[in-house]
């Protein structure tokens, strides 16, 4: 009897070890089993209404084996849009696009969407880990407005440019427009920034005179705020206070010369001289007639008629 008991005990131990080894092997196989879908990547934010490169979100992943896929988007736990209704795909890369439009052609509500992929052959449904934010609201822009000022972009370092600070309701890039044309956009997104205008549009100096400046902003989804006119900036190199002066022969007269240059040069009927910007006090020619007065500064000139009568 003792020998039989010892034999049974040995057999039981062998069976137990075999069962343990089998369970371990099954566990290791399950642990090393490759998922059928890998390398998922999605765009994080987009706007279907922006009319820009970010008006749709990309959804990319790779399949280890060919399968029939059904892909949809869920929002708040509910299916919001079906991208792929059940279609065979070969092994390899799968590239899809979510345009934010529902089956009736309307823009889906703003919010967070998550892609879900069902693989018919694998009998598996996988929710991708990335969230896609659908955003259609442009950023709010706050800036000091009703600004009236002038610049003289002649490169002398005196009033060559105009600067304005702004803040945004969300992170975005500030945009400056002059007479309806975009002239600058900040390189980085932020909640505040500064725009600078140097008197140029598309690399060329604008004509002297008044120009309307407007500001806008663009967020990460591509939404742009409507341009808001906030300033009138006068580009002025040199200007005279009046275009016509009437004076007696040989009489003295005064005329205002506006400029940001340190000095202006004037010429009238062979006479000339240098003066500080401001009120010029000159003498008219002795003979009656109509003469031209030229005042120049930093390579720019203004003209007035001097009528001697």
Question: What report would you give on this structure?
Answer:
The protein is mainly β and 309 residues long. The protein has three domains: 98 residues, Sandwich (Immunoglobulin-like); 95 residues, Sandwich (Immunoglobulin-like); 71 residues, Immunoglobulin-like (Sandwich), CATH 2.60.40. It contains one helix and 26 strands. Strands 10, 11, 12, 13, 14, 17 and 18 form a seven-stranded mixed sheet that branches. A hairpin with an 8-residue loop joins strand 17 and strand 18. It starts with a helix and ends with a strand.
Keywords:
3 domains, six-stranded mixed sheet, mainly beta, Immunoglobulin-like
Number of strands: 26
String of helices and strands: HEEEEEEEEEEEEEEEEEEEEEEEEEE
Radius of gyration: 38 Å
What's the CATH class label of the largest domain? Mainly Beta
Q: Please work out how many helical segments DSSP would assign.
A: 1
Average pLDDT over all residues: 89
Structural class: mainly beta
Shape: rod-shaped
Terminus-to-terminus distance: 151 Å
CATH architecture of the largest domain: Sandwich
Topology:
Blueprint: H1 2-32, E1 37-42, E2 45-46, E3 57-63, E4 67-75, E5 78-89, E6 92-98, E7 111-119, E8 124-127, E9 132-134, E10 141-143, E11 147-151, E12 162-178, E13 181-185, E14 190-197, E15 200-201, E16 204-205, E17 209-219, E18 228-235, E19 238-240, E20 244-247, E21 252-259, E22 264-268, E23 271-275, E24 278-283, E25 289-297, E26 300-308
Parallel strand pairs: 2-9, 11-18, 20-26
Antiparallel strand pairs: 1-3, 3-6, 4-5, 4-7, 7-8, 7-9, 10-12, 12-13, 12-14, 12-17, 15-16, 17-18, 19-21, 21-24, 22-23, 22-25, 25-26
């Amino acid at each position: 009897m003792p020998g039989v008991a010892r034999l049974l005990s040995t057999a039981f131990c062998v069976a137990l070890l075999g069962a343990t080894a089998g369970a371990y092997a099954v566990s290791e196989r399950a642990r090393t089993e490759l998922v059928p879908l890998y390398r998922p990547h999605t765009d994080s934010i987009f706007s279907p209404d922006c009319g820009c490169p970010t008006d749709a979100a990309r959804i990319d992943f790779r399949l280890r084996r060919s399968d029939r896929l059904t892909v949809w988007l869920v929002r708040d736990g509910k299916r919001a849009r079906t991208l792929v209704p059940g279609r065979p795909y070969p092994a390899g890369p799968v590239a899809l696009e979510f345009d934010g439009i529902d089956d009736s052609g309307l823009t889906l509500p703003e919010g967070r969407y998550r892609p879900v992929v069902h693989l018919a052959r694998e009998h598996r449904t996988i929710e991708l880990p990335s969230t896609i934010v659908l955003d259609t609201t442009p950023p709010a822009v706050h800036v000091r407005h009703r600004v009236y000022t002038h610049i003289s972009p002649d490169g002398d370092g005196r009033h060559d440019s105009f600067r304005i600070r702004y803040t945004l309701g969300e992170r975005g890039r500030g945009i400056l427009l002059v007479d309806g044309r975009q002239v600058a956009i900040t390189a980085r997104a932020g909640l505040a920034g500064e725009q600078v205008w140097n008197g140029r549009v598309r690399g060329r100096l604008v004509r002297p005179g008044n120009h309307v400046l407007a500001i806008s902003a663009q967020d990460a989804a591509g939404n742009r705020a409507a341009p808001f006119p906030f300033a009138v900036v006068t580009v002025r190199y040199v200007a005279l206070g009046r275009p016509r002066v009437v004076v007696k022969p040989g009489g003295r007269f005064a005329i205002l010369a506006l400029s940001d240059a340190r000095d202006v040069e004037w010429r009238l009927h062979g006479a000339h001289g240098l003066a500080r910007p401001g009120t010029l006090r000159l003498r008219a020619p002795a003979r009656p007639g109509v003469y031209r007065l030229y005042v120049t500064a930093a390579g720019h000139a203004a003209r007035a008629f001097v009528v001697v009568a």
